[in-house]
Amino acid sequence: MMTKFSWTKQWYPVTPIDYLDSSHPTPITLLGKRLVIWQDKQEKWIAMDDTCPHKLAQLSLGSIDKNGDLMCRHHGWCFDGTGKCTNIPMLSEEKALETACNSKRSQVQTYPTQVLQGLLWVWPDNSSTAVEDSILKQPAVMPEDKVDSSSIDWFMSEVPYSYTVSIESSFDPSHAQFLHEGISGFSPERAIPIQCFKVFGEISAEDGFTLKNSGYNVFNKDMDATRKFSPPCSNTTIYEFYNGKSALFLLYFVPTKPGYCKHIGRFIFDAAPQKRNLWFELLPKYLQTGLKHLSSYKLSDQDISMLDFRPISELTDNKTWQKSYFMPSLADVGIVTFRKWLDEFAGGKPEWQGIKETPFLELNDEQLYDRWHRHTKHCPSCRQSLILIDKIKDFCQNFTAVLAILALFLIAINLSVKIILLPVLLSILSLICSYKLDSIRQGFLTSIPKTGLPVVKLY
Asked: Which parts of the chain span the membrane according to its record (predicted)?
């Protein structure tokens, strides 16, 4: 008997806990619903509608008051962790204040939350049984004995292509040899046909499906891969190699709004430890993380360049995926299986809450390759890296100016060339340093180069 999948009666990971600031509210979007995340005085993470019932202002623009309640920035209305209004500053009469605060119209809708494996999970259902329903179901996490939650950081990015396209791509391993040529040894010349790709067990609305496939390049041809889709948004993949080594990919694809999807991932490799870079380890931890994030953008830029075009093609053709796609290869089993699950159990696409799906708009390169909105503004390590870079860059610019003035002064008093040469050389080095830092800073904001043609080099 076929069971209808409910998009709202599910646990979704909305952000790594490390990305949140307990002293400030954070806005998020889930299934088209705008929410605010904040921590109350009991240190519990609260998820509620990001709308003040007074004049519909964004609560995420507010602050946490001295009582540990969320205060609206517009008129100072305050709300506790249950969504109950606790104060209306413009009501001085006690009886009127009590009546207004007890009114259902002053209540803000809240949603169940929990923290597991370093992620904040939200249950976006607003029915009267939401709390009871959420207790009966556990999020799609790995068993604790298989994951060391403290060893590997989560990475989060919101990309400008859809939930459906995102998950399809994660079940399409063969694309890596072609789309990601030049990264991690991927190359069309090293591609081999997948010899085995099949569904293992049953497909169901709540439990999703499991796939097993063989290798797809000369390096992993003897590999066995197991891919488990746990609705609504988890793809856990385990690669097991002939030499006993393994790799674990924990991926979540969270539908935020039409045409956009939040990717949260962690990769754990059973391999020999890499050679330590002692100079790199001298940098602040947040800067190490920020620079590592910078190095990963080329791969995601390649994905964006290819996958952003897909929704345009689908709308232009106005066909079902079965008629639009031609899939004669065994390598396409993963895509077909996910699409069948989506059609048979989940209505063919996410069920957006409170918004209408509008026609897809083509993005220009500045929007498509924007890194600030995709990742940096969410990531505390990258934001701190930007602040540090700006401080050092400003220092270098001021230091250059001081050295230039000093050199002119030394020339004016007719000192020897050797003495004058020192501040001149130092000013040149400081200027070069400022220029290099400006280029690094640009990398945290966009993939479009600062100089030359504004063309993103994907290969």
From this structure: 395-413
